[in-house]
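We examine the record.

___
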Amino acid sequence: MSEATKKSVGTIGGYTVLRREPLERLEGEFIQLEHKRTGARHIHIECADDNNGFTVLFPTPPRDSTGVAHILEHVVLAGSQRFPVHDPFFSMTRRSLATFMNAFTSADWTAYPFSTRNTKDFSNLLDVYLDATFYPRLEQDSFMQEGIRFEFEAPDDPRSGLRYKGVVFNEMKGALASPAAAMQRAMGKALFAGLTYEHVSGGDPEHIPELTWQNLREFHASHYHPSNAYFYTYGDRPLESTLAPSSATFCLDSSASASTRRFLTSSEVLDRRESPSPIRLLRVRTTRGARRRSRHGSQSRAPTRSGCFR
């Protein structure tokens, strides 16, 4: 066990230790922590297993069937502030020694797990996952690629008809096409009327076009916050080496390393926009979702101008 977890202390770094329990079958220890500044919750299973695991999970209960949580899961992994490449997540799959890498959207939560036996690989993946989830670029092109857009029936013929396209849109068309899926959806509406579970969290192709880029950005700002995050780690990696990057992600101070960047302010998170190209503008204006843009500002918490989440 790491030195800090051997001591009977109430804090580790910027975290308060809420509970410690021995795990005899694993010959290890259960440690429950909470980040002092933001309230982020962390469960660590310390044991003599070199296959170290990490997960960050956000409760993302849907209020409709536009598939905002599912589409956000895809767009989050399409480039971040520190890793401004088109697809850092899948770039890592070709370079990483990970034993597992994935992301999941369930009925009311979204999770980003990975595991690896290599110490350096763990640190690299941790940096990518933290930056992807808390500081994604959320570009409009990524939203249209992963979520919903119009395309001509014949790509080279502007006189041909228009059709909806998108990675999640096409995925859900297939997922909901079977009789079993139709029955499950009808039962969900009947059994859970008025609850979040009456909606299709993955997105209903009938309602996905109603989602706008701004809706997606507001959903990220309100749900992907440390106070709404649950972290899980497992293995023999010293807990402090995982908590330090997480805490630095939540709050930047004057002693932070030069490799970390200034975090976005709340106004930048919601108002940062690039001037769209004529083609992009045409596509946005021709989608049903774009004509239904939300007029309400986000009430979510985001990094403040001091550089810290609060």
The CA atoms of residues 24 and 55 lie 23 Å apart. The radius of gyration is 21 Å. The first strand starts at residue 11 and ends at 12.
